[in-house]
Amino acid sequence: MTASEALSTVVLVDDDPLSLALLRHLVASLPGTRVVTFGVPEEALAWCLANDPDLVVTDQQMPGMTGTELVRALREAPVLRDLLILMVTTVQDPETRREAVLLGANDYIPKPLDAVEAGARLRNMLALRRASRALARQAATLEDEVRRATAAITEREHEAIVRLARAAEYRDWETGAHILRVSWYARLVARELGLPTAEQDVLFRAAPMHDVGKIGVPDYILLKPSGLDDLEFKIMKEHTEIGHRILADSDSALLRMAATIALTHHERYDGTGYPAGMSGDAIPLSGRIVAVADTFDALTSERPYKSEWPMGLAMEYLRQNSGTRFDPECVRAFLGAQEEIARIRRTFPDTHGRTTGRPLALVAPPDAEVRFAV
Ligand SMILES: [Fe+2]
Ligand SMILES: [Fe+2]
What is the pTM of this model? Predict the structure, then answer.
């Protein structure tokens, strides 16, 4: 039996055993039905609430609760909103029929029972119920497919982004682990700042592209192991605008945020950064967050021109530059999550630093100008 042909549960409620037996016989002769009978309407109600049947057929005159009272109680239960209800009434009682319909009964079966007529009404009701169940299943399947397709598109978009970031990173000292750590740090700051989860996610996915513009910076500058002269530094700075040009004007919110981050992750809170020299809250929040995450990770990573700074020293650098280089709120948020930062560092260690093999020196902390890959 397929899902669409699954058994329909029909509940019969009548205090008269003879009527109940007749009805049971009638319903049981319909294909694909399972019958449950009750002589007491209160018991039928409790059973329906727990079992969500397809159809209830109820008599009107019963001791205690009447048929119309049962209809009212069934209709008041939100869990039974798709339930179909048939009233059994005598033809001489149009008042009860009207009341039952007004209370939400779908149709009625005249008494005394005519097997052909009652059988036809029951069959129609059950066909209606099966069709609406099949429709609901179809809608759920469609919804599921749309959800899966959307998730697949988002995943592919993210994959393309990570690959693009990886392409840039092949030309640089930075490693794959760097972009992962920066993403995690950025999300951490966003969370600590109280941004909604959806925004944390977009930031997390966009952050890997902060340096994608380095694709457009010549090798002799990008890979230079010593400090850059003024002209070289000027060219190096262009990676922000190149990255922005690569990513801008997309329909994708993710790429638009990535473009903003690429452009603004070297702006400084006091206005001394580049490329635009923006200051304070004029710098987009995503750029301010990635500035903290990226600088911290560059400081605590080994590079050909410097050794890895201890975490405490890098934290001190952030603290001392809070309000000048960095947004104080972002620094506060970052410093408040030290344990998670340590865990992220342990989870994504550098496995393939492209070092020159030259002796590494600890660059003078903490006010040293980091003019290299940060
Ligand atoms: Fe950069
Ligand atoms: Fe970076």
Answer: 0.62
